[in-house]
Design a protein that fits this description.
Blueprint: E1 6-9, H1 24-32, H2 34-40, E2 44-49, E3 59-69, H3 75-78, E4 83-94, H4 103-122, E5 126-130, H5 134-142, E6 146-148, E7 151-158, H6 159-166
Parallel strand pairs: 4-5
Antiparallel strand pairs: 1-2, 2-3, 3-4, 5-7, 6-7
Helix pairs in contact: 4-6
């Protein structure tokens, strides 16, 4: 349970068509692509629902395996490996009705905790996010994500840091 919402894997039971975060591309991806990616095994999407309305989606995030080349990372981020495995936080969106109430940070913690659990099973050193704009980049930097070299909108956070943050 997170912030009064249950975090569950996306299924056909969820009413993704009514989700509106205010960003058409994020709404459309959830409605048109999330289940397809899940079935193909390319990404896993988790949604926030309530016990009273388990079909209504209030937030979502998607995680996918990824790797980052050492040449764009600092030595501390890569530890000298030529490619660094991790998890791409491919999407993170909060229903417009929930904005400004601190839920964005809680949604991010939910996503990071899932990435850390996945890393315990399958390995992985980083969480990677490609932000849509400077506002989103600022949000992630607030939570200690740092940009890779040459791309201020691609940000990373070490799994070890996530584990420390989560306790």
């Amino acid at each position: 349970m997170t912030a009064g919402y249950d975090s569950v894997a996306l299924s056909t039971e969820h009413d993704v068509a009514r989700f509106d975060c205010g960003i058409p591309g994020l709404n459309a991806w959830l409605a048109d692509q999330a289940l397809r990616a899940q079935r193909a095994g390319t990404a896993r999407t988790f949604v926030w629902v309530t016990a009273d309305s388990p079909e209504q989606v209030w937030a979502y995030f998607s995680l996918a395996p990824t790797e980052v080349a050492r040449d764009v990372l600092t030595r501390g981020q890569s530890s000298g490996y030529s490619t660094v495995p991790g998890y791409l936080l491919a999407r993170l969106a909060l229903h417009a009705d929930l904005r400004g109430r601190g839920y964005g940070g809680q949604l991010l913690v939910d996503a990071l905790s899932r990435a850390a659990k996945a890393a315990e099973v399958g390995g992985g050193r980083l969480v990677v996010v490609d932000t849509l704009d400077e506002t989103a980049a600022s949000f992630y930097r607030h939570y200690d994500f740092t940009p890779v070299r040459g791309d201020p909108r691609r940000l990373v956070l070490k799994i070890a840091t996530v584990r420390k943050l989560l306790g």
